[in-house]
């Protein structure tokens, strides 16, 4: 308990002095690794404070994480890509979402690529998003494999699978909310499959309600299906909101209309 009190006090103090952190990289990096350590602390409240402090520091010091600091071989966000699974292994789903939102703010500060032929100005951000989201993209492929291996509707009654789908969608939504239109390539990877799962959940709920009445809304797997539908719509809405300005669309070399044409029609089918 005393260790947890010390940890919470340390996190509170470092969260209040971002200017000091920006001016002292070695201390800053030590603080970040200490936060990762606290994410494994089992005392109530410590993990939550660790991810909240992590988010606050990433919002206020984001530029420090996307450039190679003196004495380092790579930027901090690239270094993180290899340790994400370890960092989040003991976090609850809500805290995992906060973790990825924080990393998204790091990525949002990545400098644009100088104007070149066939290279998006947001290429640096797109590359970092792909690196950071690699483990969750692998999880998504496993979800699709699981659905394809048996009857899709049968698979989607698996509560653990539904929770996994919701987490993947929520993590992506947090990333999109922090990074913006530069998540276009990331979203494109699974967009059509996400809509297919949304449609399957909708059809299952409609058919079950028609056959057995509104009582099915109280069933655990139906509640989880409704969560998947909600998380799908939130992800699309967040992306549309972030990409709806001309400057955000231009970052990925497209107009707002072109982005809308790519993502909206499949949603309405």
Give a written overview of the molecule.
By secondary structure, this protein is an all-alpha fold. The chain contains 15 helices and no strands. Helix 1 packs parallel to helix 4 and helix 11 runs parallel beside helix 13. The protein is globular and about 65 Å long. The N and C termini lie far apart (55 Å). The mean pLDDT is 90.
| Form type | globular
Q: Output the structural class.
A: mainly alpha
Q: Output the number of helix runs.
A: 15
> Which regions are unreliable across 5 or more consecutive residues at pLDDT < 50?
none
Number of strands: 0
Percentage of residues in strands: under 5%
H and E order: HHHHHHHHHHHHHHH
Radius of gyration: 20 Å
Approximately how much helix is present in the residues?
Answer: over 70%
Termini separation comes to 55 Å
Mean pLDDT: 90
Largest β sheet strand count, sense and barrel closure: none
Can you summarize this structure?
The protein is an all-alpha fold and 269 residues long. It is 74% helix and 0% strand. The chain is globular, with a radius of gyration of 20 Å.
Q: What layout of secondary structure does this protein have?
A:
Blueprint: H1 2-16, H2 18-23, H3 25-38, H4 46-60, H5 76-80, H6 84-88, H7 93-108, H8 123-132, H9 134-149, H10 152-155, H11 159-179, H12 184-212, H13 220-243, H14 246-251, H15 256-268
Helix pairs in contact: 1-4, 3-4, 4-7, 7-8, 7-11, 9-11, 11-13, 12-13
